[in-house]
Amino acid sequence: MSSSAYEGFNEESFFDRVEAQFVKKAPNLSQTLNIAVIGKVSAGKSSLINALLKLSRRQALEIAKVGATSGVTTDLTILKLDEKVHLVDSPGLDDVRTENSELTKKFLKHIDVGIFVVTGSSDSSQKKNLDDLRQHCDAIFVVLNKIDEWDDLDPSVLEDIIQQWKTDLEVEKIYPTCAKGYDPKSRLPTMDIRGVAKLRNDIGDFLEKKGKDLLLARHMAQKQSHAVKIIAVALAAVAGEAFIPGSAIYITATQGAAIASLSYLYTGEILSAESTLSILPKFVAETAGSNLFLFVKSFLPPTGIVDVAAAGVAVVITLALLATVNYLLSNGEELEQEELLRSKFRTYHQQAKDTFKELALTDVRDLPSWTKLVNKFLGSRQ
Ligand SMILES: Nc1nc2c(ncn2[C@@H]2O[C@H](COP(=O)(O)OP(=O)(O)OP(=O)(O)O)[C@@H](O)[C@H]2O)c(=O)[nH]1
Ligand SMILES: [Mg+2]
User: Fold this and answer.
1) Distance 98 CA to ligand 1 centre (A)
2) Domain extents for the chain?
3) Which of 147, 172, 290, 335 is spaced 20 to 30 A from 41 at the CA atom?
4) Cα distance between residue 125 and residue 136, in whole Å
């Protein structure tokens, strides 16, 4: 007997082994995240923060104040998004230093991401501020904001200006942005947001490598794209894990870790391994007395070889259950709502089966883009 989904363990040890894998896969949410947004008065720092977090104008007023009159961000420089995530919005680090509180000292000791905001024509005197910031940061993103100021001119003018900034600041990359529309005094009916998605993605990719992307994504007003990422990563993992001996352990742990991530994204709550894994059997509670072991048995063959077909089944179940969790959490519902959970799951399960039938994949490992698939799957409903 080789490649059995249950190889080498019994029902009693199953939970423990899944839990051990869950701990490895679940996001580390005990870390801190420090972000500094530095730039001259009125450069658009507050506007950019609001645009990065995709806040509405109303929400923006509560987070980072935008002012037509300059110098609005004067008093408290540290914004606490939560106990672990701190954001500084200040003209320079000197202003942070003068505050000299325990919080600012700790902040300055380690900044994960520095966002340096400039505007207008290049100014080489800014380089010392950038260098100062760089000394404290793991990564620096230089932003040229208010690019709309050059809208009436030939595009080559903006290109030249960007080039000049690169030379003067000695950086390879500059993010041109427009973050206009958050000013409450502005009579603009719509916002003009440009280049911010690219900046957000690159910051997200950097934080992902440090295992900190979820800490920030949790504060974004729109969470769907991050949820898609969590689900896509889990599906890709399951598609591979199905072929490993003892696959049931890995697949279950992957599902659990994805549920824990989704839960943190939407609620900010950190679920324990036990409470996360106790959710899984609820999906198939039709089988009376269901536990985690029976849950896995319901879709993985208990003996024999895990083949391509079984892997497909595991992926379909995983997609259906994570789509269900996403649906409930994004609608502010509790995962304990068992009836809703199961009825949604039944619908998604059928749709997931249909989706994969339409794809006519012989091997789920051949799917080119999980993100695209999940986007389409979630986007076409809700
Ligand atoms: N035209 C244009 N105006 C912008 C842009 N971004 C912000 N503004 C405006 O510039 C002004 C200052 O924006 P803030 O976001 O308050 O800038 P800040 O850097 O936080 O300013 P302080 O907190 O005073 O240092 C506001 O009137 C904004 O609406 C942009 O991309 N284009
Ligand atoms: Mg400000």
Assistant:
1) 24
2) 11-29+222-379, 33-210
3) 172
4) 19
